[in-house]
Amino acid sequence: MIPFADLPYAVRGILTIFSIAIAFIGVVILCYSTLLRKIGFFILGVIIFLIGFYSVETDYEIEMQRRARIITPLIKKLGDIPYAISTSLLLLAFIASLFILIYLFAKRKTMLTNTSAKEALNKLPSGLCYYYENGRILMANTKMIELCQRITGTSLLNGRDLYNALENRQIFVFSDLSAYYFRRNLTDYEKEPIYELIAYDVSEFYHKNTELKENNARISRMNEQLKAYKQDMFDSIREKEILETKMNIHDETNRLLLSTRNAIGGDYSDEDKRGLLKTWQQNILLLCKEAGLNSDESDVMSDLSTLAGSYNLSFHAEGDLESLNKYFLQVFVYAAKEAMANACKHGNANNLYAKIYEKEGSYSFSFENDGAIPQGTVTPSGGLKNLKSILMEKKGDLIIETTPGFKLIVNIDK
Amino acid sequence: MPYQVLIVEDQAMPRRLFEIFLESSQQYERVDSISNASLAINIVENKKVDLILMDVCTALNESGLDAAEAIKQKYPHVKIIIVTSMPEYSWIERARNIGVDSFWYKDSEKEEIISVMDKTMAGEHVFPDTTPVVQFGDTTNHALTERELDVLKELTTGDSNQEIGDRLGVSAGTVKRHIENILLKTGFHTRTELVSEAGRLGIVIK
Question: Rounded distance, CA A294 to CA A284, Å?
């Protein structure tokens, strides 16, 4: 086997160039493996580089020492290596380095590097920022940097300052009407606590929500108007019924006029004429009533008098009923009803006396009768118990006095 | 012996009319006349009453139908004729369910009240086939479905679609669809207009 040192100069020159190429590839492998954090390939790259480097170094020393006619033992040994072995080694190193390089290139396209991660984060439409407890920024994407500039007017230097600038607002609306929802989470990085601050673009949602709130407020106002209208509906129905009855009576009167004209000129029997007369009397009576429409208060007094009559009682009321609206009149009627039932059932009374007092902020109704006074305390039961429950719901109360006489007192807030 | 009749009517003139009818009849005698339906049961408890002429909308917003229901539960032998001029869609059915004996529209041209009273005391039940037809915008009250009338009635409370839906057991979207259908049929532009007119005509009363 021809030693490596005895190869022709030109051949050694080619092998030297080959070695330089191998060293270069080794350097490239070193760089890529560093970038991709592949320790194994880094070591291989070192080996390949060293093979190429020392191959060049060895050829150089052989040539220099030959020219100086001095050959050191190490160089002599290296020079005596058969050229087949050294060439094969170089060839192997070259092929291996090529494969490694191709592999690393291919891997780089699919591997997630720090740069690619940062690039991806910067492309997010949401803002993202990680910072330590003292506010020192660990990572922030361009969106969050932009948002910080818009909120604070300064660059994103401290995450805590940015968060404080939000002033506990979860949704921040900018002057251009864009809206961002900020959320902060506590997490950790390399066993150290860090904050994750995320800003979501919720502009469309925010504006639709605002529009919805305005619509709901408008509908609520309309609903309140409808509720108020409903309160008057019964009055409206009442007036309509009155008008219809009036119209019927007036139509009836017209028919009567025609019938009467025919009766005067024609052959009506005495009985028919009496019938016409009676009808006239009835209609005139009704038309007389037409002028006087009953009020709620007069209806209440009339009804309670009628009811008292059914209990063989006389009902006497004192006080200003006219000041009571429908709500309080209802309470008064209910209380009077119970008072009458009690006066009749337990007291055998002949008269029931009701008084209406108006106090500041409340009304008071009292009911006394001239019947027997109950012995001992009276516990509400039956109708009185129901009355007490109703009054409690309406923010009122029921007081039962038995001395000097039986007295029911109803107090109700205005 | 004449039948004892209690008149429950809050309008003075119709009440007087009924009183005149009873006075001119030998078959009926007036027990009492009141304007507040909630007092009717007390009078029935204290006096002999065979028949009640009961208005629906009475004084202090007391419902004649509620009073009729209470009376029928406790005194089923007392006959009750509901009298009204309102074309409210649900009253006839409710009156039947309560056990009311007859139902009469005040402005009915078909039958006089005395005739209805005679038939009722004879054991018949006189009910109109349907409510009076009332012009309601571009249509009539009879053109609305029962569900639409239910929704229209709830609309008068002024509550939201969701609240109405919860009461009727349907979604807010369904309520909205019914309202849209009613508006389309009637030609009204807003629910306020709808409710205002429905209330004025007495088509729905809550």
Answer: 18
Does the ipTM exceed 0.90? no
A338-351, pLDDT tens digit by residue? 999 988 888 888 99
Contacts of B151 in chain A (CB under 8 A): none
Q: Is the pLDDT assigned to residue A128 strictly greater than 70? A: yes
What's the pLDDT tens digit per position in A77-98?
Answer: 777 778 788 788 888 888 888 8
Residues in chain A closer than 8 A to B12 (CB atoms): 289, 292-294
- Asked if pLDDT for residue A10 goes beyond 90, the answer is no
Q: What is the pLDDT of residue A238?
A: 67
A220 touches B: beta carbon within 8 Å: yes
CB contact under 8 A, A226 and B192: yes
Segment 245-284 of chain A within 8 Å of chain B by CB: 245-246, 248-249, 278, 282
- Name the one residue in this structure whose structure tokens are 């209910």: A334
pLDDT band at A293 (very low <50, low <70, confident <90, very high): low
Of A227, A229, A286, the CB nearest to B196: A229
CA of A355 vs chain B CAs: smallest distance (Å): 20
Domain carrying residue A328: 296-413
Residues A302 and A407 in one domain: yes
| Helix, strand, or coil (residue A321) | helix
How many structural domains is chain A composed of?
4
Position B26 in a domain = yes
Query: Quick one: pLDDT at residue A201?
Result: 93
The answer to whether B37 and B80 are in contact (CB under 8 A) is: no
Res. A287 pLDDT band, cuts 50 70 90: low
- Confirm if A139 and A129 have CB atoms less than 8 A apart: yes
Judgement on whether residues A249 and A321 belong to the same structural domain of the protein:
no
How many structural domains are present in chain B? 2
| Domain around B81 | 3-121
CA A353, distance to chain mean position in Å, is 57
Residue A291 pLDDT > 50, yes or no? Answer: no
Count residue pairs from A and B with Cβ separation < 8 A: 137
Would you give the DSSP letter of residue A153? S
Question: For residue B109, what is the nearest residue in chain A, using CA coordinates?
Answer: A248
Q: Are residues A242 and B16, on separate chains, in Cβ contact within 8 Å?
A: no
What is the per-residue pLDDT for B178? 95
For residues B116 and B139, membership in a common domain is answered with no
Instruction: Mark whether B15 and B96 lie in a shared domain.
Output: yes
Q: How far is CA B66 from the centre of its chain?
A: 10
Contact list in A for residue B192 (CB cut-off 8 A) is 222, 225-226
Q: Would B127 be classed as within a structural domain?
A: no
**Cis peptide upstream of residue A404 (ω within 30 degrees of 0):** yes
Residues of B with CB under 8 A from a CB of A: 10-14, 16-17, 20, 24, 32-36, 38-39, 42-43, 45-47, 57, 59-62, 85-86, 106-107, 155-160, 191-192, 195-196, 199-200, 202, 205-206
Q: What does the CA dihedral A144, A147, A153, A154 come to, rounded to 10 degrees?
A: 10
Residue of B nearest to A278 (CA): B24
Q: How far is Cα A398 from Cα A409, in angstroms, rounded to an integer?
A: 6
Given the DSSP bridges, would you call strands A179-189 and B79-84 parallel, antiparallel or unpaired? unpaired
- Supply the pLDDT for residue A234: 65
The verdict on A182 and A82 lying in the same domain is: no
| A47 or A268, higher pLDDT | A47
